[in-house]
Amino acid sequence: MLQMQDLTKSYGDVVALDGCTFAVGPGQMLGFLGPNGSGKTTTMRAVFGLIRLDRGAVTLNGNPISPNDRLAFGYMPEQRGLYPKMKAGDQLAYLGALHGMEQAEARRAGLQLLDELGLADRAEDPVEELSFGNQQRVQLAAALVHDPSVLVLDEPFNGLDPIGAETMANVLRQRAQNGATVIFSSHQLDMVEDLCEEVAVINAGRIVMEGNVRDLKAASPHRVIEFESSNGYAAVLDQLDGVITTSFDGHRHTVIVPAELDVRQVLNRADSDSGIQHISYSTPSLSQLFKEAVA
Length: 295
What we know:
The protein is 34% helix and 29% strand. The chain is an alpha/beta fold. The strands form 3 sheets. Strands 6-7-8-3-9-10 form a 6-stranded mixed beta sheet, sandwiched between helices. Strands 2-1-4-5 form a 4-stranded antiparallel beta sheet, with helices on one face.
């Protein structure tokens, strides 16, 4: 279990972390979310001892994290730390050796990862000759080459096309299934909702929402109703009680209502509206929960 307990850090008058506390266990993949400047990167750096905390501690299974523990961690920073003129395969072998692997073992692991990430034919290319997205894949391979037990990734999906994002998501999912502890930050909340069972949302240095995604959605006091109408307006909207917000994108109405609203009445009213082509009723998306949490 990787635990962040009361992490507190200030830079002059700027409070980066203000009692940040959450935990993630082996085999879990946690989406670490927050607005820009909320403290995500500072928290990740604290895991690796890259900052001196004013208060609090990061522990592993209840114990302080030792240098040997960190050798078994993998880190993918938002700003890439690759050597641009070094060949991708050589770079992974070198970084694996820094984590204590034998050179031949590190090379085999690096080439296997490049193959897994769709870059088998680019192993002999200098990193600077790769596209932005492919450099991102090599950076992930660098974090994975030593088969880490704890994996921390800062915006790993940045700059990836849909195929690249899916490839990376599958790799991370497999690592968690194999027992690794995986934490990653992302602004792509739809991706996080699809990929993670657990999330922690940080705002102004404090955790403002944490838990199982499905449980958080079910516990929300709000529900979402979506209508599609052939005449551009759904008359049933005039009959809804307690509407919190409503929006229309020219094709679909999205209405936020209290969770206690009797959805059977809504469906009956919609059934009498001949213009209704589609109606759905659901819990809020992770994106909607996030906006409420940081508002």
